[in-house]
Design brief:
Blueprint: H1 6-18, H2 21-28, H3 32-46, E1 51-54, E2 57-60, H4 62-89, E3 94-100, H5 102-105, H6 109-120, E4 124-130, H7 133-142, E5 147-150, E6 160-175, H8 179-182, E7 191-192, E8 200-204, H9 210-222, E9 228-233, H10 236-244, E10 250-253, E11 264-270, E12 274-282, H11 288-306
Parallel strand pairs: 3-4, 3-5, 7-11, 8-9
Antiparallel strand pairs: 1-2, 5-12, 6-10, 6-11, 6-12
Helix pairs in contact: 1-2, 1-3, 1-4, 6-11
GO molecular function: DNA binding; DNA-binding transcription factor activity
InterPro entries: BudR_PBP2, LysR_HTH_N, LysR_subst-bd, WH-like_DNA-bd_sf, WH_DNA-bd_sf
GO cellular component, one term: protein-DNA complex
Length: 307
């Protein structure tokens, strides 16, 4: 059975359904003599007679009747397999694993992309994972992840493509009773970086968010001072909780202002450290769910630039 051409099964089914060689040939778009020849080839390969040749048509033999159900199953399964693989290649079926750092996920860009992809490809099994930058990049390298949203490339970046999709300012987060929360025009004037030189600084742990951590440290050094780091928090939201508790101040991406944490006031900084957002994926992605997600990343990034 493994050596039988699938076309022979389709020919057999057409003749069985029409009960007539000429009508089956018309349905298939081939000549009647070649179709008769192919049916004889199939019977020879099977070693059985599938049809009784009648004066005005073709009738299935008992063997042919028994074979018809199996022929339907084989053709149906093959058609389904072909359809499935084409849907996977088109990115509307299969599975996709997307990772992100906590600061990346808190920017509206990432959930916007995920929602657009989910609407576009609801049949794709979507797996989401929050982790540190280094762990996400390891996941890309070993194939456990397909796409990752991170703040900064790091380590061995071979075989991985990094596309910067946006860049945002970072802002100062201070307790609402802090003097820096009350100065300036209704608290809207930019705070110079030098103003936080003596402040107790709470940072997102470098091991978890190296990109943001390094950008803040570089901005402090650029302003002529070394920061007084009071604590390093394991999560960005933990950083905000510690600030709200009055344990210090922090510098966070401007997108976190959307969180509206009680007890925190956000102030612009001058000069403001910058927080980029990158989309990372393995080289050579040409098709499938990953390529489809990347299309949404590009479309959303263009919208952000336009705005």
């Amino acid at each position: 059975m493994a050596n039988i051409d699938i076309r022979l099964l389709r020919y057999f089914i057409a003749v069985a359904e029409t009960g007539h060689m000429t009508r089956a040939a018309e349905r298939l778009g081939i000549g009647q003599p070649p179709l008769s020849q192919q049916i004889r080839v199939l019977e020879t390969q099977l070693g059985v007679t599938l049809f009784e040749r009648l004066p005005r048509g073709m009738a299935l033999t008992d063997a042919g009747q028994a074979f018809l159900g199996d022929a339907y199953d084989v053709v149906r399964k093959l058609d389904q397999a072909v359809d499935d693989v084409r849907r996977v290649a088109a990115g509307i079926k299969g599975r996709l694993s997307v990772g992100f750092t906590s600061s990346s996920a808190l920017h509206p860009f990432v959930p916007t992309v995920i929602r657009a992809f989910r609407r576009d490809a609801p049949s794709v099994s979507l797996m989401l994972d929050e982790s540190s930058t280094s762990e996400l990049l390891d996941g890309l390298r070993d194939g456990h992840l397909d796409v990752a949203f991170i703040r900064q490339p790091q380590g061995d970046i071979g075989q991985i493509v990094f596309t910067q999709v946006l860049e945002e300012s970072m802002v100062l987060a201070v307790p609402s009773a802090h003097p820096l929360a009350l100065t300036g025009r209704a608290g809207k004037a930019a705070v110079p970086m030098t103003a936080i030189a003596a402040e107790k600084l709470i940072l997102y742990r470098r091991r978890t968010g190296q990109g943001l951590y390094d950008a803040i440290i570089a901005a402090c050094h650029g302003a002529g001072f070394s920061p007084n780091i009071e604590q390093e928090a394991p999560r960005l939201l933990t950083t905000l909780s510690l600030v709200a508790a009055g344990l210090g101040v922090s510098v966070v991406p401007a997108s976190l202002m959307r969180m509206q944490v009680e007890g925190i006031v956000y102030r612009p900084l001058a000069p403001a450290p910058r927080a980029p957002l990158y989309c990372a994926y393995r080289e050579g992605v040409l098709a499938g769910p990953t390529a489809r997600l990347l299309d949404h990343v590009n479309e959303t990034a263009q919208t952000v630039v336009a705005e």
